[in-house]
Please model this.
Amino acid sequence: MFTDLFTDSYGQMLAENYTIKPPKKIEKYLGKVRGVMATGPRVPIDTEMDIAQRDCNFNDVWKYIEKSRGLDWNLFGYVTVVKFPDGTQKMINGLHRKTLVEYVAPYVTEVPAHIIDLSHLTQEEAQVEAAKYFAKYNGAASRTVSSEQRFWAEVIGLDEDALRLKDILIKANLSCGKVNDIPGTKKVKYNNFVQAVKLGTNETIRAAQLIHLAYPGNTINDTLLSGMARLFSHSSYYELMDDTTKIYEQFEDWFVNFLPKMKGIRDLSYRQYRNAHKWHDGVAYGLYRDFAHFQRTQGRWCIPVDSIKKHYEKGIQLDSMLDD
Model:
């Protein structure tokens, strides 16, 4: 049975004192606690969260509270804390459970903890290791962390691939989660950004630059970004990336100065071509098809559309085979 430690009126008052208020259906569980804390070391519940930690998703906290009908110590387990060389301790796992306790049982001052001692390292080395632990734990032992949150931890942990992606984000004036999250940057989803970079680093950067110029007031279109990277990286259209060619300049002028007058950025997802195995192949075909049509109306030469069309149609055939 749960122990009701607070009256309903106190629970109401507790809810009102928090900046983020729980929904009405949660208030009846505030103050309801059962079970016994796990044995072993304890840390203060207000232990600082490590910089690698994600932001709290309060909707998840409300779900946990409702599912457990309050706080159940039998389900709490241990938070994970890193001890740094300067003596400070920071939590790298347990943010949502800690928040749950703060709402349901605000009288609790300590929680059970697994403490990882990194005091034998330098402060900088310890911070890198802490970020690595967070990324590894939440990439394997838990599936609740998003790709963007794990990417942030990997950057702090000085992961080589993550730092390379960060450098590309900076050059493209984009952000992903907390990485390069500064005013003026447009956000991309991690998985879509990685897909674009796989198609070509310079191609992704140029695609982002053109999108910024053509649609400065819009959010980034991830599908368009990877579609343009696909087009620019296709061997038959290498001239679109060669700034010494006339078609390079013509494509940029068309994309930046003409296309936005005809289509919104969402229209450039080319959903009618989504039936390919990889959607960005359809976007590449649709985009170049529109450009080729424009070139013909202007009496200009353009690279034939056949190569990118065949690539797109091959993707449709592959998708059909996979469905079978």
The longest strand covers residues 110-117.
